[in-house]
Design goal:
This protein has 553 residues and is an alpha+beta fold. It has helices spanning 16-20, 29-45, 63-66, 75-85, 117-127, 139-147, 159-167, 214-224, 256-267, 278-285, 302-311, 345-374, 396-415, 419-439, 445-459, 464-502, 519-526; strands spanning 56-58, 94-101, 104-111, 153-156, 171-175, 181-184, 230-237, 243-250, 297-299, 314-318, 324-327. The longest helix has 39 residues, at 464-502.
């Protein structure tokens, strides 16, 4: 199988300026051209992403910055502007290498650490063999079409676009007395290798996961979806960060209105930048106010994102983030896990039911237990054993609130604790704190027991954001029961359900297929269907093709 890894995964040297000095070594033309062709093949993997086409830049900048800003013809003027605008000779990572090829002064500009210096060396080696006779006409045309041995090279006459490309990892080549630059794709971002996501582990299945490099992430999905209809549209958001955002969809499956709606929302984002990547983009586009429930689904698994794209959903990649957003989503989508589809239909259904039971237990177990304790007259006879024999020194509502806060503190402490100490800390928290709290009379045994069951149900929730939102719901229900008894529980539950029913994710009902009711889709959620029985795509996404099975004609 061909190696699909992106060249961005490397860290093949950050000493770009040292490497280009090797370009002055002599070697026969034929051998140099052959090596240059090999070097350009590496650049092809790095994904120039159609740098020649104008990138749709979405920013909060003024109209003056969006006007065409030509590149000066004189090389000295170019160098002067580079000193004033991007800190050349001030910032150590801004590298400019001046050389003369065929009696024409040139300069290359790149960010040290963001380029593949071996490729630039091969380009410069090839250019050292130029003679004045080779550049008698249009020098820029000759460099572009005949002498720069790189796979992806485009002409760029605009100064602002050139700077954006260079800041994104490309290399700019300036030629004296030419009113444009050549943008050479020689990107080589520092990155880690694909690893299995810690929040979406499976017993069976692929072990690769998304990383912080955009080209690596889209390649992982492209490797799984070799569909010519798969589209990757890239835009830039942020006046200062100019963060690359990729909108992925399958052209003959995804709803065109959904794709257009997502593009329109992104086009209205007015921010200085997206240093926190996808989360800031979500908050800027999904107007949910103080609603704690997630309206987009995050995933770090390429197979999960590929499966959603095949259903007709839209995926959003944000550079520097290993999480990919899939749009739209529903409450039921957030309760499903990849492991269910890696097992047989029977086992997958069993795992799904166990997970559903855990999620609902994390929501309603504590409020219902508190309700039975406060009002024993409504407790069924079969559950007469439920309830503490003594309440302890603190009221039950205070015990629940302290236990909730304690679980959150342990969760946050485990995140900031070194891995080697996390197990020891868990034992100390679970045994010493819980046991001593019961022995001193601060807590009763049943509060600790049911709180532990609810915490397990929360951790069993596949979506991290949904687990946190369910915890807030549980707190609201506990406080409502303590304050208003049975009416409080009924009213709070009804209000939360109504809020979820009225919520929409990119104009799709959040509680589908419960509301609006869709029996076929609901059955597909309750029972993990065999692959050959799951023949249609969900109508929630309004796909252009409902049938999953290809035509045999």
């Amino acid at each position: 199988m061909p190696d699909m890894r992106s060249e961005h995964q490397g860290g093949e040297g950050t000493g770009g300026e040292d490497a280009v000095h090797h370009g002055e070594s002599s070697m026969p033309n034929e051998q140099k051209q052959e090596e240059s062709r090999h070097g350009s093949g590496d650049a092809e993997k790095s994904g120039f992403s159609q740098m020649g086409n104008r990138i749709h830049e979405v920013s909060s900048g003024s109209n003056d910055k969006n006007k065409e800003n030509p590149i000066p013809e004189r090389l000295d003027d170019v160098l002067s502007r580079l000193e004033n605008e991007i800190g050349y000779k001030t910032s150590f990572d801004v590298v400019v290498r001046e050389m003369t090829f065929g009696e024409r002064r040139t300069a290359i500009l790149f960010m040290n650490g963001l380029v593949k210096d071996t490729l630039l060396t091969e380009v410069l080696k090839r250019l050292t063999y130029l003679h004045p006779d080779d550049l008698t006409g249009d020098a820029l045309y000759a460099f572009l079409n005949m002498y720069v041995p790189a796979a992806q090279v485009v002409k760029q006459p605009d100064w602002n676009e050139m700077l954006t490309c260079v800041m994104s990892g490309a290399t700019a080549l300036f030629i004296d007395n030419e009113p444009a630059s050549l943008i050479i794709d020689a990107k080589n971002f520092p990155s880690r290798g694909p690893e299995e996501p810690s929040l979406e582990k499976v017993v069976r299945g692929s072990r690769d996961g998304f990383v912080e490099t955009l080209m690596t992430n889209v390649s992982l999905v492209r490797r799984r979806l070799r569909d010519p209809q798969l589209r990757y549209e890239i835009i830039q958001i942020g006046e200062r960060t100019k963060t690359d955002v990729c909108i992925a969809y399958i052209a003959d499956l995804a709803d065109p209105k959904l794709v257009k709606s997502i593009k329109d929302k992104f086009s209205m984002v007015k921010l200085d930048g997206l240093p926190l990547a996808d989360k800031q983009l979500e908050e800027a586009t999904v107007k949910r106010g103080w609603n704690p429930f997630p309206l987009v689904r995050y995933s770090e698994r390429p197979d999960t994102v590929s499966a959603h794209l095949l259903e007709g959903a839209v995926a959003v990649f944000v550079d520097t983030s290993p999480c990919v957003m899939t749009l739209p989503t529903t409450y039921s989508d957030l309760m499903q896990h990849a492991e269910e589809n890696r097992q047989t239909p029977f086992i997958g259904t069993y795992l799904r039911w166990v997970r559903f039971i855990g999620i609902f237990a994390s929501l309603f177990l504590l409020p219902i237990w508190l309700l039975f304790v406060l009002h024993p007259e409504i407790k069924p006879t079969a559950l007469a054993f439920i309830g503490p024999t003594k309440t302890g020194h603190l009221p039950l509502i205070v015990q629940f609130l302290l236990a909730e806060i304690g679980v959150d503190l342990m969760r946050m402490a485990s995140v900031h604790t070194p891995t080697s100490l996390a197990t020891a800390m868990s034992l100390v928290a679970a045994i010493l704190i819980g046991d001593i709290a019961v022995q001193t009379g601060l807590f009763v045994n049943e509060v600790i027991l049911y709180m532990a069951v609810a915490a397990i149900g929360m951790f069993a929730t596949p979506n991290y954001e949904l687990g946190l939102a369910n915890r807030i719901v549980r707190l609201v229900l506990i406080i409502s029961v303590a304050a208003f008894s049975v009416p409080g529980f009924v009213i709070a539950t009804t209000a939360i359900l109504m809020m979820l029913t009225l919520e929409r994710s990119f104009n799709r009902p959040y509680m589908w297929p419960f509301i609006p009711f869709d029996m076929r889709a609901l059955w597909g959620i309750i029972i993990r269907q065999p692959v050959l029985h799951n023949r249609t795509r969900p109508n929630l996404l309004r796909p252009q093709q409902r049938d999953k099975m290809p035509s045999t004609e």
